[in-house]
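Reply to dn_fold:

You asked what the input looked like. This is it:
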Amino acid sequence: MIKLFNIEKAYPVGPGKYYVLRRISAEVKEGDFITIMGPSGAGAWSGEYYFLEQPVHKLNLKQRAEINKKYIGFVFQQYHLLDNLTVAENLDIPLSYRNIKSSERQAIVADTLDRFQIVAMKDLFPSQLSGGQQQLVAVARAVIANPKLILADEPTGNLHSSQGKEIMELFKRLNNEGTTIIQVTHNEAWAAYGDRIIHLADGWITPS
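and this is what came back:
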């Protein structure tokens, strides 16, 4: 599904650069559950990145955005739900990016609310939910359009341990159903839910 060749990522520090990724080459197969552990970082990147055989590194921003909308669901540490929309309306957003009739979208939202056992929250706003409830909605939003890949960035970082376990068990069930998952975490217990752990240190992949 994903192939990386000599990926490098760095940001400027004084007259030089600080690398958070150095010559990273890796492959993620469909159905994998990968955990990445390492320091936080940001900046420009270089190298070759293939997703479903498409050379993403050669695509323009619009084309990359289309891939994101069509194939990828995102789960963030800060939830990133829209405060002025209800739970049901937040779930509808990924569907609105696609050519799906309104009636079909409503049916998909209803099925997702039932699947995640959050029907009672459908008319509530994010501010009316606990952190664990918000992240549950965020995961539901990430998978509602049946993405091929879920990218989860510290998905349990703001949750209590019991809430974090609930989210990780949910990810494991989704993975067992065929969804490919890549998560970034600093938590050893949550990392163990993945089938494979990639450790980063000083930008390099290190032996496990």
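Helices lie at 61-71, 87-96, 102-115, 131-143, 161-176, 188-191.
Hope that clears it up.
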